[in-house]
């Protein structure tokens, strides 16, 4: 008896997804809750688990097809079929040599070399996280023996292979064969490559363009002296890491400073809904994180009630999940204000775009030593440009400038964050 595999509920407002990859082929044994397909949604990549143990049956949709929540995408044959398949394979392996079918007579000419024995299944499909690790570390998945279910590769297998590859001594010049040179492009040839946009990238494009068309976006700038935060971080980073098991970064300082500003200027933490303004009495900060498939914004909830350590731990956990491709819909639902740190990529200044339905986003940039005037003297200070993009339909210029000034003052004098000034 066949059991249908259906698209599970993917989260609020998500009604469809795209088949990104089949993780099982027809005829493959499948265990209960083992992933059989990978889906791409508007926000994250998710895997579809098998509802029963058995054998992979018919695949009713193809890679790239768009399917609705609840749609049947495949079938799983009953577990008895899986048992019979395993028994047949075991009987074939246990068959004595004298019962084996006779080998065909060799044809004239040199016999072909026997294929080398290899326990690795070269047709095994890689999960999204494993595929990203393979591309990142540049290893050959066909040369790695998997330790996961049914011999599937895991991310740990790839990392171990990459580490072994780095530790292996490089072959001598005399022994190493020169790599094959790529075919030279014809003179004047102009090459192009077309790659279909993922659903995540399509959604990012649609939402950002929609924000520009619907909201009245304006950006205000300020610069910030990072000396005090850098000194505090250098003074306490070792004790902080020892006590909390996480590094003390700059993001927690900016998150706490933003909480001060949002409480003093409530409109920056609000949103427009129809002809009403919704003021949030809490602060859920969306932190822009770069993932392999695009920018994602997981939410640090109740950041105003969290400690520096709790904020750093939450951000680090989201960063790892984004890298592994394991962020969930719940991780990115909601958010009342966004912080985007382009400085980690070297950006000096930018105008970030608001993440709807939010009304403001804070852009951080690289820290750069610049000459500034202090007490009538020109001195060198580690400076950062801050940018606050806001929806002018809701937030007046005075409110936006005031909020950014509060953030600047809190960073330049971190004591303000402790005594709520």
User: How many helices in DSSP terms?
Assistant: 10
Structurally, the number of domains stands at: 3
Oligomer: single chain
- Beta fraction: 15-25%
Report the sheet with the most strands, covering strand number, pairing sense and barrel closure.
7 strands, mixed
Description:
The longest helix is centred in the middle third of the chain and has 18 residues, at 227-244. The strands form five sheets. Strands 9, 12, 15, 16, 17, 18 and 19 form a seven-stranded mixed sheet that branches. Strands 1-8-6-3 form a four-stranded antiparallel sheet, covered by helices on one side. The chain contains ten helices and 19 strands. With 421 residues, the protein is of the alpha+beta class. Residues 85-124 and 172-176 have low confidence and may be disordered. It has helices at residues 79-94, 128-137, 155-167, 199-214, 227-244, 251-264, 308-324, 329-332, 397-412, 415-419, and strands spanning 3-6, 16-22, 29-30, 35-40, 45-49, 54-59, 66-68, 72-77, 217-225, 270-273, 276-279, 285-287, 289-291, 294-296, 299-300, 337-341, 360-364, 368-374, 377-391. It has three domains: 3-81, Beta Barrel (OB fold (Dihydrolipoamide Acetyltransferase, E2P)); 122-167, Dihydrolipoamide Transferase (Irregular); 216-419, Chloramphenicol Acetyltransferase. Helix 6 (251-264) packs across helix 7 (308-324). The radius of gyration is 28 Å and the shape is globular.
